[in-house]
Structures are given as C-alpha cells and as structure tokens.
C-alpha cells in the first residue's frame, strides 16, 4: 500500500512539474491542458509529410525519396543558401566550396563548420553516402549518371532566371526536405522585402524611371530572361537592352552604350579574372573619349552592388532589388 502511494505521489509530482514548465515556456497563463493540445498540434504538423515521395525534377526524371532526407549534399550555391535556412545543420553533409566565399556567398559566416566541401566529383560524393544530392540543370550528365548508378538519389533543380522561379525552387525544396512551412516563411520574407521597395516606387511613371545597363568583364550585358533584368525592373529601373528585345547575355558594344545612353552602369564587384577589377573596368569606360557624354559617365553613376546579392539565385536575390533601388532613388529611402 505504501509503495502504491509513493508511485502515485511521484506521478502527481511529474505532472505538476510538467505543467509548470509548459506554462513558463509559453509565457502565457494558459492551462496545462491547452499546452498539451498545442504540443499535440505541433507534432501533427511535423508528421504530415508523406514518404515515399515521388517528384519530377527539372530534367523530367521522376525521383523517389524513400524517407525524409537526413544526409544532404548540395552543389548549387543557391540551393546551399536555401538549405541553411530550411533544415537542421546536422542534415547538411556537404556543400559547394563557394559557400565559404563571402564575395559570392550569403552564408559564408553561417556555413563555417557545417558539413564538408565538395565539387562535382562522383567518387567523392559517393564516398559520403548521402541519401539526397541536389544538382542544377547545368550539371555534368556523366556525374549524374555515375551517382544514380551507385543508387544515390539525385534531384536536378532548375536554375532560376527570375525571382518567381526562386520562390518555385523554395517551395519544391521545402517539400523535398519536409520543411514546407519554413520555405513559406522565406517566401513571405522575400515578398515583404519586395513590397518595401514597390511601395516606394509605385507612383513613378516610365519617364521618371532611370535607365541602367550592366557591363561584365567579358564585355557582355544582360537582356530579357535574365535575373538582372527581373531585379532592375522590380527596383523601378528600365533595362534598354531588354526593352530592345535582346535576350540572354549579348555582347555590349561601344555603339550600344552610346545608343542606350544609360543613367546608371553597374559593374561587377567580383571577377573570375583576377587581373580585372571594378577600378580597372571603371577606368576603361571613363577613359574612352567616345563615351564621355554618356549620362552614367558624366554623372559619375558607374557603380557596383554586392555581388552575392545580384548573382544570387536564392531568397537573397531580393536584397539586390533593394540595393539598386536605393542607389537609383536615394530620396525615396531616407
């Protein structure tokens, strides 16, 4: 009888302590029963993902994930940036080396010590024995085949060419890694950032919008169907190359610069060729007498914006919209 009373007392004590702990962590005056109900709801929300899950990747291949992926390898930098905000860091087995380069990566500090660094090498990836590998549609087909022949699950992702496609990738990746709610949170954050810019420029007419060109170290620019074109339009600027109907990344001749006479020229802040930098490219343009009357040259509006923003194909791409809008219309962002 005494033993039964001791057991009953212990059970009551545990229930009492649990009730107090639940109330404290919620910082509310809710009863223990409400806390328990909330916990039950949370558990249900985290177990709604159904595996095995079959989805079609960007190459039209049907990929089946047998269970929630817990050991993920990501080669595209944009996907690495998304995963760092979507999954527990312990689930990231390896990422591209570019994740550590702060000039191109938005996760350089956060990624320190998270997973290994990997390149597009089938043997090295197989050695990690991941249960999921993310690659983009530009990946080496031979590497993809070797991985799949080794029974490694590979999911090919579309390389976004605008911010809406970035959102699409976030939704898809969120579904694959069973973190759809977090993916939606990131999309909501993106939309808030975009709205903060659009609210300031919504009353501008086309004749009030500034014209802008980008000019790469390879003397190319960005036309229709590029991330740059989408970003500058959202920032309230006009890309005359796109307006002229030129697609992709056409060569930007001196005659084209004169014809378009942009108010702003954007140069990269990061270069593949280490012999070239912002200052050398800037001086090349300014030193050309034929370009002396270009508005961007006369008004000293040859600029760069953070390359990790403007080159991003993840949620961080919206920061480039903000960067450019603030340069073009500083008065609207005071």
TrEMBL record:
<dbReference type="InterPro" id="IPR002491">
    <property type="entry name" value="ABC_transptr_periplasmic_BD"/>
</dbReference>
<feature type="domain" description="Fe/B12 periplasmic-binding">
    <location>
        <begin position="71"/>
        <end position="332"/>
    </location>
</feature>
<dbReference type="InterPro" id="IPR050902">
    <property type="entry name" value="ABC_Transporter_SBP"/>
</dbReference>
<comment type="similarity">
    <text>Belongs to the bacterial solute-binding protein 8 family.</text>
</comment>
<dbReference type="Pfam" id="PF01497">
    <property type="entry name" value="Peripla_BP_2"/>
</dbReference>
<feature type="signal peptide">
    <location>
        <begin position="1"/>
        <end position="23"/>
    </location>
</feature>
<dbReference type="GO" id="GO:0071281">
    <property type="term" value="P:cellular response to iron ion"/>
</dbReference>
<keyword id="KW-0732">Signal</keyword>
<protein>
    <submittedName>
        <fullName>ABC transporter substrate-binding protein</fullName>
    </submittedName>
</protein>
<dbReference type="InterPro" id="IPR054828">
    <property type="entry name" value="Vit_B12_bind_prot"/>
</dbReference>
